[in-house]
């Protein structure tokens, strides 16, 4: 087993979330208003905050501190997904390598640190690797490291987003492509958006011998889920609250994170964990040009994390055009690594 598949992951700033338009830091000098998000993004954030049920995208977790907090989350005793996926690779590595096949062109949306990619490229003796990430600067460094670590691998970085018309290198072989999407990141998308993302991945892998290898988190005992998203050390609570600090920088708001309580629960009907921030007391939050009053207990919805039953997910793969799906599970049946042909 390659070392990196057994090591603790180090997600990049932003990269853990392959969603459009993230900002790891305040770098946008062209921002016309206080706060550093581009005007369109600013309006989108404010629109979410002004809805009757206020909401923000989970991509706003991942500024620099948020990415470090996520890394800490992956090491918590309660947070099973990261080490469970690693256990699946340990338990089934040989079978995975046999089914996936060698000499592949690996394409990873949201590649970030490329750490899982390194292990996979070594396991499969990949010929090419393309990492795709919103955080292009970080990705370029990671891909350079990958090139050094895996001699002979043709490794490239592409800045952009799968769902927003990003372009692969023109000279990338169209055959034997493998789209790699680990970490159960697909759980952050609601089912229609997840379905769209799978279709986009199918288009990427569509040439001869194309396939997908993707990690998902399965439904399980509610107490296990609950603990994973509301850990005893309060790390997930800090991660959740940090989104407000990030927003303050992006839109110039004056959220006081200390005035917001972490709320996480499993919605059985929707099969998803929901995370919210609840106002500890009545408060007014302002930003340039506006603001909102929150009543005590009023919430901002910050994340959904869907737990797809395996048959449901297999059906989604089928609708996206994938064939011959198969899955490897950990011994408790908590997470799955799914492979299918494009
Ligand atoms: C990175 C989307 C897989 O949903 O488990 C961890 C993010 N949120 N704790 C997840 C997360 C709260 C994580 N993913």
Q: Got a strand count?
A: 13
Walk across the major sheet and give the strand order.
4-3-2-5-6-13-12
Bound molecules: N,N,N-trimethyl-histidine
Our Rg estimate from Cα atoms comes to 20 Å
In angstroms, what separates the terminal alpha carbons?
A: 27 Å
What's the overall average pLDDT, rounded?
89
Topology order in helix (H) and strand (E) letters: HHEHHEHEHEEHEHHEEEEEHEE
Looking at the structure, what is the overall shape?
globular
Overall structural class, as computed from helix and strand content, comes to alpha/beta
Sheet-strand content, in percent, reads 15-25%
- Biggest sheet, in brief? 7 strands, mixed
Low-confidence stretches: 1-31
Q: What's the number of helices?
A: 10
Helix amount, in percent?
25-40%
């Amino acid at each position: 087993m390659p070392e990196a598949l057994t090591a603790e992951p180090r997600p990049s700033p932003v990269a853990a979330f392959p969603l459009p338009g993230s900002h790891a830091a305040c770098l946008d000098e062209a921002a016309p208003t206080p706060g550093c998000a581009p005007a369109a993004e600013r309006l989108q954030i404010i629109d979410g905050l002004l809805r009757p049920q206020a909401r923000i995208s989970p991509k706003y977790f991942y500024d620099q501190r948020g990415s470090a907090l996520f890394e800490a989350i992956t090491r918590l005793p309660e947070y099973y997904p990261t080490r469970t996926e690693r256990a699946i690779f340990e338990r089934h590595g040989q079978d995975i390598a046999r089914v996936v096949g060698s000499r592949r062109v690996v394409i990873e949306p949201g590649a970030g640190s490329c750490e899982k990619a390194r292990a996979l490229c070594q396991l499969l003796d990949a010929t090419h690797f393309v990492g795709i990430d919103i955080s292009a600067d970080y990705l370029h460094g990671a891909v350079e490291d990958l090139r050094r670590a895996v001699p002979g691998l043709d490794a490239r970085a592409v800045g952009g987003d799968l769902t927003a018309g990003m372009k692969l290198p023109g000279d990338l072989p169209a055959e034997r492509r493998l789209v790699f999407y680990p970490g159960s990141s697909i759980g952050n998308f609601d089912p229609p958006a997840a379905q769209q993302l799978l279709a986009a991945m199918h288009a990427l892998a569509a040439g001869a011998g194309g396939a997908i290898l993707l990690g998902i988190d399965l439904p399980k005992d509610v107490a296990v889920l609950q603990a994973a998203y509301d850990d005893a050390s309060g790390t997930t609570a800090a991660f959740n609250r940090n989104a407000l600090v990030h927003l303050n920088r992006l839109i110039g708001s004056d959220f006081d994170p200390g005035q917001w309580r972490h709320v996480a629960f499993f919605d059985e009907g929707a099969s998803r964990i929901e995370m919210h921030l609840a106002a500890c007391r009545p408060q007014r939050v302002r930003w340039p040009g506006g603001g909102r009053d929150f009543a005590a207990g009023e919430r901002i919805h910050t994340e959904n994390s869907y737990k797809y039953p395996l048959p449901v997910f297999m059906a989604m793969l089928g609708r996206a055009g994938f064939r011959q799906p198969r899955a490897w599970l950990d011994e408790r049946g908590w997470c799955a690594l799914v492979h299918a042909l494009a």
